[in-house]
């Protein structure tokens, strides 16, 4: 994280309490509520909640997940938000949901059928809330849900309802394929496309 990111971080009072081991184990199968309203510019679509995220009840909650720094470094947010401040995203025209609702220790525990069912639920949300863009944060989940095994990162040809579709890499700290700088570049490229003309 850059010095600017550290300086822009929220006060320590905004940081979630670290869950206990028992709380993490109890989080399996739990869900995290969507952060959504009509007419968003971007609805970010995570793969599914991890146990840490489900235990604290906030999206992309695990320390080391690079979603929040990528949002800030790319210009989606004016400062680095913590997961506890996720509701602030709505004021920027941004929302959060997951392709699969149930929390697991790892996304590899999910079946392909769950991703396809998640796609149907996402199509219903898109029809109801009409975001301008759906941004998938995880290319493997997108490829499985949409049965497009060679889909690239970036803008996709199809739409979901009236929403354009963009695919970003996973921001998990376990994703070694993309450095924080590269993630910020990819998020910035998407932000420039999503807000073009605004």
What does it look like?
It is a single chain. With 198 residues, the chain is an alpha/beta fold. 33% of the residues lie in helices and 14% in strands. The protein contains seven helices and five strands. Helix 4 packs across helix 7. The chain is globular, with a radius of gyration of 16 Å. The protein starts with a helix and ends with a helix. The relative contact order is 0.18.
- Summarize the amount of helix as a percent range: 25-40%
Shape: globular
Helix and strand string, N-terminal first?
HHEHHEHEHEEH
Structural class: alpha/beta
Proportion of beta-strand residues:
5-15%
Q: What is the number of helices?
A: 7
Strand order of the largest sheet: 2-1-3-5-4
Count of individual beta strands: 5
Give the rounded overall mean pLDDT: 91
The end-to-end distance, rounded to whole angstroms, is 29 Å
Largest sheet: 5 strands, mixed
Radius of gyration: 16 Å
């Amino acid at each position: 994280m850059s010095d600017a990111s550290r300086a822009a971080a929220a006060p320590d009072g905004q940081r979630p309490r670290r869950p206990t081991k028992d709380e993490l184990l109890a989080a399996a199968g739990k869900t995290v509520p969507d952060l959504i309203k009509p007419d968003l510019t971007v609805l970010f679509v995570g793969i599914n909640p991890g146990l840490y995220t489900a235990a604290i009840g906030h999206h992309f909650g695990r320390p080391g997940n690079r979603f929040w720094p990528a949002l800030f470094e790319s210009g989606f947010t004016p400062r680095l938000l913590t997961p506890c401040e996720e509701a602030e995203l709505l004021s920027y025209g941004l929302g959060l949901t997951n392709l699969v609702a149930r929390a697991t220790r790892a996304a590899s525990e999910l079946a392909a059928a769950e991703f396809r069912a998640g796609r149907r639920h996402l199509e219903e949300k898109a029809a109801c809330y009409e975001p301008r863009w759906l941004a998938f944060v995880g290319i493997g989940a997108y490829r499985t849900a949409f049965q497009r095994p060679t889909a690239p990162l970036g803008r996709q040809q199809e739409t979901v309802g009236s929403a354009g579709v963009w695919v970003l890499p996973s921001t998990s700290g376990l994703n070694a394929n993309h450095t924080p700088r590269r993630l910020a570049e990819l998020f910035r490229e998407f932000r420039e496309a999503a807000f073009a003309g605004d």
